Amino acid sequence: MRAIVTRSAGSMELTDVPEPRELASGEVLVRPEAVGVCGSDYHFLTGELVTPEAFGPQYPRIQGHEVAGTIEALGPDCPAGLDVGVRVAVWPLSSCGTCYACRIGRRNACPNFRLVGVHVDGALQERFPVPASQVFPVGDLEPQVAAFCEPTSIAVQAADRGRIAAGEPVAVLGAGPIGQAVALVAGERGAKVLMTDLVAGRLALGRAAGAETLDLSEHEDVVPLVREWAGGEGPPVVIDCTGEPAAIRSAVEMISPAGRVVVVGISHKELSLNVSWFTEKEPDILGSTVCGAAQFAEAVRVVQRKQAVVRRLLTHERPLEQAPDAIAHAMSHPAEVMKLIIRTG
User: Fold this and answer.
1) Residue 224 belongs to a domain
2) Which of 96, 199, 207, 330 is 20 to 30 A from 178, alpha carbon to alpha carbon?
3) What is the DSSP annotation of 233-276?
4) Are residues 200 and 338 in the same domain?
5) Are 197 and 132 members of one domain?
6) Residues 172, 211 contacting (CB under 8 angstroms)
7) pLDDT, tens digit, 9 for 90 and up, residues 160-201
């Protein structure tokens, strides 16, 4: 069968791979129909995202973790409610179950977790096995839209970490796919949302979804502007979706006393912070990563309710055989490509 295989850093090709192995107990065989491509896929492809040596060689790997597809076969002992032909979104996480994070119920923060498309082969192929516990029926959602359940689940986790409540002003730094998803989830929870970015086209998509926007290309100092928007003290919640040190520093500076900063953006950069901000404002500085099963289930419900909004974010779509060129284009044109979908069905 056909698959897109990442052979080494920077090298991705369409090739033939063996048919899937026999299903184990509690597994299903998924036929992917649509796979979203995100920033972590780019980081994995370039080699910036490095998997632990204990997990074995990083390459070759079949990527793809934002997945919608249909169940093609059921292994033994699968739970009721899953049948051949059912369309599902894939929650890509499995955890060790024994570490501290797992023992306290935060399996998404497991240092030994494995992600579909990163640590094990993912969805840029014609069929692949996955534990039945990691597939969520999506009803009649079209596959391209259903593939956005995974980035929406990241936003649900961030909203939970930030304890977003109805009526609160929430500033979202960065209007890429995760920023858009965070704004969508925050709005669903009744928050008043301000989205910031340097790219006008991304902000336009945020406005269409109901967020207020601030174009950073027109302002040097965002902190007083966001504070004024929030009512003077600053927003009680700021969610960084950029991973940029300057943005995170601004987030800590701009929040209200006793506010929460949630960092979702991924990078390996370092930043400096004024120590007095911690003792003067007593903020909560929180990280957020992939989600748990409950958050993924909520993400499916959000996408089902907000299909029209999600559909506007899916700016580019290509068939499987064009995936290497399409991904290269997306990486070199980030202001143009909001969300690339690879049609695998």
Assistant:
1) yes
2) 96
3) S--SEEEE-S--HHHHHHHHHHSPTT-EEEE-----------HH
4) no
5) no
6) yes
7) 999 999 999 999 999 999 999 999 999 999 999 999 999 999
